[in-house]
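Model: You mentioned two targets. I'll fold them one after the other.
Researcher: Yes, keep them separate.
Model: Target one:
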Amino acid sequence: MPANTPNNAISRRHWFPKPYADAVARLRVPAGFIMLAAFGWLSHPDSPALIPGIALSLCGLALRAWAAGHLAKNQRLAQSGPYAATRNPLYLGTLLTAMGLAVASGSAVLGVIFVIMFALVYLPAIELEEQHLTAILPGYRDFAARVPLLLPRWPRNWGPDSFSFALYLKNQEYQALIGWLAGVAWLLIRHMW
């Protein structure tokens, strides 16, 4: 089958040159600190945007938590829960959380920065992970042909595995909760001042 047919999602041409993807993959954590500084500096929450933004960010955080409870990293192919709807629910949750906090912050500039950061740092990381998972997990290529990369599609079946709180803890997803709580606290403090 030709490499760019719809049934062969992984074998398509690469979006980013590999040296670039490798370089930005190492920059994900420093980029997070840059985003944190931008969030702290550019946040000017106002009442109408605060509640809907926090609600959107909470949805993203919940998606991340749900995904973490189904993910046994590098051990088995996650196909249950949110992985039945999208191959990258953690990244989608990150995007929703960031966009929700940007809305709550009242800063359009912050929203633009988050989108640019996602496109330039996280999309190359997704591509590298796809290559890695194809190499180590049998069945990943077929899974990729059935399940969308990022934007979810409602599945007929949510899969056989249930959420595991032990996996949630093992994947240290509680750190995202702590970060979210700190971000919301910062927004509320800024709003009151």
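Model: Target two:
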Amino acid sequence: MPILLQKTQLAAKLEALEGTAENPGAGDALLVINPGFKPQVEMHQRKIVGSDLSAYKSLSGRRSARLAFEVELKGSGSPGVAPEWGELMRACGFDETIVPSTSVSYAPASSSIPSITLALYMDGLLSKLWGARGTVRLNLSAGEPGRLAFEFSGADFEVTDAVMLAGVSYDSSEPERFLSAGFSVDSYSALIEKLDLDIANTLQLRSDINRPSGYSSALLTGRRPAGSLDPELTLVADYDWYSKWRNGSEGAITLALGAIAGNIVTITAPKCRYTKLGLAERSRARTLGADFECNRNNGDDELKIELT
């Protein structure tokens, strides 16, 4: 029987002991888009010489895996209740702050970042990785639901036969579109169509010869948040893009999606600095391709996502 693409489930669970696999179940499942599992096994050729030209078989070495997917940017539907993607954010180096019945917010962390186990069920086949940490990218396009694109690196993996999860109850809230967003950059209400923001975590696998995979876990060792937007080009009198770039000025990016309690997403990056500007066009009007970096204010505050 073929394995059908549509019949796919993802479940994720933070690990009680770093690098030790959990067993995510129905209560850990969440809705995802475009999941892709990429296992890796180091292959070592044995360059043995002999009386003939035939090669000896290679040997398998260390192994690891990556898992990439997207989720819709949306709240849980209830103020003060974490969204289904909350644990993913924590494993990508974000602190989660919950104010009961009011808000849930995510801001970068530099310590106490948990590892996670991810289980991808594909119509009877289970691909699982553990000892994982990841990075995340925010993608916003005019009129479309926002998305968070995750990529996790895991210290080990396995692929087995397994039935699909039963009794799954997915979050029923719907994402708001990138409209009526109150967007501004450096206090200027620029006319844009797209905004991308990448937390750009640096991940390293920790070598451990006492583990069968050769790794104990993926370690988050740094981040360099950056992004891009595509504003309409303006007169200098309206907003001086090039002087801001040339002088290294910093300004805040702010926006908010939604207006219904439990599904309002507010995004703030307080210290953004342009790193590249290039001419472009949209519908025969001049635009800019504007790259920017997200810098620290007091530390661990380059970006904040708040759900109310």
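Researcher: Noted. Anything on target two?
Model: Residues 241-247 form the longest helix (7 residues).
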